[in-house]
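This entry is passed on directly below:
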Amino acid sequence: MGFMRSILNRPKALGIRNISFDIERHPLRDSGMIQSAAELTRMKKGMYSKALLMWDHHGSGRDRHSPQVIAREVQHKLDQYTWSGNSAVTVLMPELEEWLWCCEQALARYCNISAEDLLQWTKIMAGEHSVTVEELRRKYPKELFEHVMRDRLRRTISPKDFEKIGEIASIRSLEQCESFNTILVTLKMWFSC
């Protein structure tokens, strides 16, 4: 949530006009988003002009199903609840931490380490799991982030970490992430300058 808040607070970098927004976390987290987010959003009609729903695919309880199919199911519900044309659904594949590995420079800067150290730690973990660096970043972004923060830097991970990284992340780098780019395209369509 903090990462997205930081990103939305940078409208110029996103190429959109200034917007006001609220970010709400579903009480049942990712699985709750699939189960009842459309219904909860229905109750917000009139309070907001647009609704963007997003959640991590990993841990959603529907990990074995196609994220695109699940997104279409939730979007269909939103459309039925009169949010058609004013809502969007994005499933983060596998989870938000993927975005961190699209903006490694910001991550290294925030952690006060060199990009070379970050890459070296990533290579070591990739070797331990018998995967390539790219596979590790793509398939296990959360585990890699936890490895860097907890195992290498001996730091506790907090929501503030995501917020601070989001403040310095390159939007251009983040566009490498399909889920981020999908959100960016939607934001530009809704809130063009």
The chain has a mean pLDDT of 96. The chain is about 60% helix and 5% strand.
